[in-house]
């Protein structure tokens, strides 16, 4: 009872305006917290909606969601700094021919075909206007435009573990590289060309 009486006496001595100011301050803190949390959730939802599986792959590689979100936000900002272009008919035809030759070589050299496929994807991207100073950075930029295709490719490619990679591993990476290659090849063309021809005997081996 004495404690309650002391609290009551203390409150009686406090200026009512001070109490109002404290309450207003508390309300503002709560409101600010709600706004910050709400904006963060909206940003997370936007990034997850934009990047899909690549969002979660980045979370895994960066170890925390905050670091992953910062990395993805940097990708978006960097991608906005330049424009890409459609390939000319001649460029498209030349790249398609090279891919067909490469695909035909898969049976005899799966590991080589995989590496060459990744290099060819990078070459097409560079020709389109994506920066080519760093292959991984290039894929980061492409992921802003084609997140699912990049996530699939990165999910199957393991450059540091190719010593034990089986033909199935190489085939999976090759197939995902082909999907991204075809998208980059066609993008921006109103009259989209046919997909690179499947060389006879190669479809069964590659899938």
Features:
207 residues; mainly alpha; elongated; disordered C terminus; 10 helices; single chain; 74% helix
Structure in a nutshell:
This protein is an all-alpha fold and about 210 residues long.
Q: How would you describe what is shown here?
A:
The protein is mostly helical and 207 residues long. The chain has two domains: 2-79, no CATH class; 89-206, no CATH class. Helix content is 74%, strand content 0%. The protein has helices spanning 2-13, 16-51, 53-62, 65-79, 89-104, 110-128, 135-145, 147-156, 167-186, 203-206. α3 (53-62) crosses α4 (65-79), α5 packs antiparallel against α6 and α7 packs across α8 (147-156). The longest helix has 36 residues, at 16-51. Residues 190-205 have low confidence and may be disordered.
Task: Itemize the secondary structure elements and their pairings.
Layout: H1 2-13, H2 16-51, H3 53-62, H4 65-79, H5 89-104, H6 110-128, H7 135-145, H8 147-156, H9 167-186, H10 203-206
What is the rounded Rg? 27 Å
Separation of the first and last Cα atoms: 82 Å
Mean pLDDT: 79
Report the β-strand fraction as a percent range. under 5%
Shape: elongated
